[in-house]
Design brief:
By secondary structure, the chain is of the alpha/beta class. It has one domain: Spore Coat Polysaccharide Biosynthesis Protein SpsA, Chain A (Alpha-Beta Complex). Helices cover 31% and strands 22% of the residues. It contains seven helices and nine strands. The strands form three sheets. Strands 5, 6, 7, 8 and 9 form a five-stranded mixed beta sheet that branches. A two-stranded antiparallel ribbon has the order 1-2. A hairpin with a 2-residue loop joins strand 1 and strand 2. The longest helix has 10 residues. The chain is globular. Keywords: Nucleotidyltransferase, Transferase.
């Protein structure tokens, strides 16, 4: 579980993982979703960017450098506590639940799995779509939930709003609260 980002786009004094959606910190919502899934072990990747978050967690933590998502993910994946394949989840997915996590795990058939949504779905929902790219003649966006493993890369394109709503801005937070 990746929970060490600065959350600068969220424009709040609260650390992003501790930002409340429907009265519950986003990190608590993601931990709950993982606990309600077939995931065997939950480990949080934290950083100096979110010092209060680590003290609020009741799961093992891996300290990352806080140099951005990719660098922090690389640091976490190189930690002795983890062995591949690893389900990675960003804490900014407050609509996540155990059922969709299990669907991701079921779609994984070895190697790595990127979970994508159509960029048009994010726009239709009214949430930010800062990172998009072309895949199979369709503009898609990463969701923040993936499986990292050895072997070939695969992608799963889903229209499920539970993985399409990443909270990066206050406007995104309002959309998430509408769907709770």
């Amino acid at each position: 579980m990746m929970c060490g980002g600065r959350g600068t786009r969220l424009d709040t004094k609260v650390e992003k993982p501790l930002f409340r959606i429907g009265g519950v910190p986003m990190v608590g919502r993601v931990v709950g979703a993982l606990e309600d899934s077939a995931v065997e072990r939950i480990i949080a990747a934290t950083s100096p960017n979110a010092p209060e978050t680590q003290s609020c967690l009741d799961v093992p933590c891996i300290e990352t450098p806080g140099e951005g998502y990719v660098a922090d993910l690389d640091a976490a994946l190189n930690d002795d506590q983890l062995s591949q394949p690893v389900l990675t989840v960003a804490i900014d997915l407050p609509l996540l639940d155990g059922e969709i996590v299990d669907r991701v795990l079921d779609r994984h058939s070895g190697g790595s799995l990127s979970v994508l949504v159509p960029a048009s779905l994010k726009r239709e929902l009214g949430v930010s779509d800062d990172t998009t790219f072309e895949s199979g003649n369709r503009e898609v966006a990463p969701t923040g939930i993936n499986v990292v493993g050895d072997g070939p890369d695969d992608a799963w394109l889903t229209w499920d709003r539970r993985v399409a709503v990443n909270v990066n801005t206050l406007a995104d937070a309002r959309v998430a609260e509408q769907w709770l």
